[in-house]
Amino acid sequence: MDQKESPAAQLQGPKYLACESRIIYLLLMIAGGMMGAYTYNVRGGVFCNAQTANIVMMAVALGNSEWRAGLYYLIPISAYCLGAFVSEALPSPVKRRGLLRWDTYLIAFEMLVLLAIGFLPLSLPHQIVQVSVNFIASMQYNTFRQAEGTPMATTFCTNHVRQVGIALAKIVRKGDMAARSRGSVHLRMLVGFLLGGTAMTVLCRFFPRQAVWLTLIPLGVVLYQLIYADLGAEHELFDRKPGGH
């Protein structure tokens, strides 16, 4: 005889929210690969999804006594820092309104920024686009932190490569099948990022300015799924925090 779910379990809801699902993270990884490829191909030859390269280049410039060039990197670094600050400060005020989750508003805002970037002429200083992408990439990275309990980074790949290597070691040494499952998740994220960057690079050859609009496809699917969850199945779970927050 099947046992009915307890009232406590019904109130708790599903184990993971829609904003924590692996498909959402895969789509965000695809969009992350697209953003990195876009800024590299047509907006100044830089990657705006993370800041390690900017800090290294700043150190190199300062070490070569190129003070002006070195101090320039404070702009993208500050934009990234501001994105983290905003994404940490806004969720609580947004939550009190009780309509949509912060995660949902963020994706909508991100789409608006990327839509606007596609209208900006390539003749404008590339720094305008670079700083904009720095800002939204930081907010995305700081907001989407765990996919069904697995820590994730949706705008760069270093940790995913590391986790695949760790999983391989555990499989070879211990035959750890749980590690195999975790490693496959990170490998799928890497493949998604790679495919997103590849598709963007191809499109940049034909529509260099508007190619950024390709990111609106995976992000649009994410936005639809999050709105559907917020207004429907997960409306009663609005006070529940996603994993990692």
Write up what this structure looks like:
This protein has a two-stranded antiparallel ribbon. It has eleven helices and two strands; from the N terminus they run ααααααααββααα. It is mostly helical.
Short summary of the structure?
The protein is mainly alpha-helical. Helices cover 67% and strands 2% of the residues. The two termini are 39 Å apart.
Q: How would you sum up the major sheet?
A: 2 strands, antiparallel
User: What is the number of helices?
Assistant: 11
Structural class of the helices, strands and pairings? mainly alpha
Q: Which blocks of ≥5 consecutive residues have pLDDT under 50?
A: 1-11
List the helices and strands and how they pair.
Elements (H helix, E strand, L loop, with lengths): L6 H6 L9 H21 L9 H12 L3 H6 L1 H16 L1 H7 L4 H16 L8 H18 L2 E2 L2 E2 L6 H17 L2 H30 L9 H16 L14
Helix pairs in contact: 2-10, 2-11, 5-8, 7-8, 7-11, 9-10
Question: Could you list some keywords that capture this structure?
Answer:
single chain; 245 residues; mainly alpha; two-stranded antiparallel ribbon; 11 helices; 2 strands; globular
